[in-house]
Each structure stands twice: as structure tokens, then as C-alpha cells.
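User: Study the chain.
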Amino acid sequence: MPPPSNRSGSGGSGPRRDGGRRRDNQGGDDAKDGIIEKVVFINRCAKVVKGGRRFSFSALIVTGDRQGRVGYGFGKANEVAEAIRKGSDSSRRSMKKVALNNATIPHEVWGEHGGGRVLLRPASPGTGVIAGGPVRAVVEAAGIKDILGKSLGSANHANVVKATLEALLQLRSRDTIMKIRGMQRTPAQPAPAAAAA
């Protein structure tokens, strides 16, 4: 009789090395250099081989400076920590600037990527971030404090993150739109005086 294998998970009953499949917005508020990192999702993949199962991990990371720059990255490795590090490096390289209006967004916008569809609407001061999961991670990393968000398509984390970023990159400030149209912003005109009776 062969000696028992010391591989964890060979029968499916060993301890899980990632502590669970889903990790939404956990662990990752790392504020060095003013840049925060959020772990949106960690996936575990099992490859069945002759001696049992071999596990690998993939991590989806969102990075932002809370000043209007945000990006995402995807890392794969045989260990969770290494996957997170790779995803973090990738997300820092992909950071892009988005147009904000104080603590919210200038206008309503739709974003689509694959099956993911995201609707973002501006909100009045004090509303907070009304969004869940991947959408919340992206808008908080970008520095948006008041927004209404809704994910209406696929629940796939990667597609929702990409759709949210697509929506944010479509935003244009009022001054930018007026410049594109060749218009100049004029100061508010005083109300005309009432005609003398």
C-alpha cells in the first residue's frame, strides 16, 4: 500500500490555500505613494495530474490615486501573494486619467465590455458610493465619493471592472465639451431690470 500523499486538496478535503474563492475589496488599501490597491477577486484553478491536484491562482487588482487616475491589472501565479504582486504591477502601469466634477462625475454614462454593462450617474454631495462589488472598487480608487452605479449585465468580475473603466474614460468635463464645439464659456449675465411703469 503506497504511503499517504501529503498534498493538500488531493481529495478535495484539505485546507484551502486562498482562504476562499471570492475576495471583494479585501486586503488591499495600500496607501504607499498615495496609491491605493484593492483586491477585487482571487480565483483558484486546479489542474489534475498523476500525483493529485496542482493549484494556481489569478488575482484581479484595481489601483488608483483618488485624484482621478485609475487602472486594473490581472496576475497569475502558483501562490496568492505572487499573483497579487503581478496584478498590482500591471494595474500601476495601466493607470489612466478620468474627468471628475469635484467628488462626482460630470454626467451620466454607460460602459460595456463583453457581457458586462455598467450605468453610472452623478449624485448630489453626501450621497456616497451607491454601487457594489467591482464597480465600487473602481470608483473609490478613482476618488469618486458621490455616485450612483448599477451593473446590468454579466456578473463576471473582470468584465464589470473593464466596463466601469470604459464608462469612466468616456467622461468629459463641461469645459472640454465647449472647447470641442468651439464655444466660449461666458460669465452669468445679470437679470434684466424691470421696465419702469
Observations:
- The helical segments are 80-93, 133-142, 157-169, 174-180.
- Residues 190 and 196 are 17 Å apart (CA to CA).
- The chain is about 20% helix and 30% strand.
- The domain at 32-180 is CATH 3.30.230.10 (Ribosomal Protein S5; domain 2).
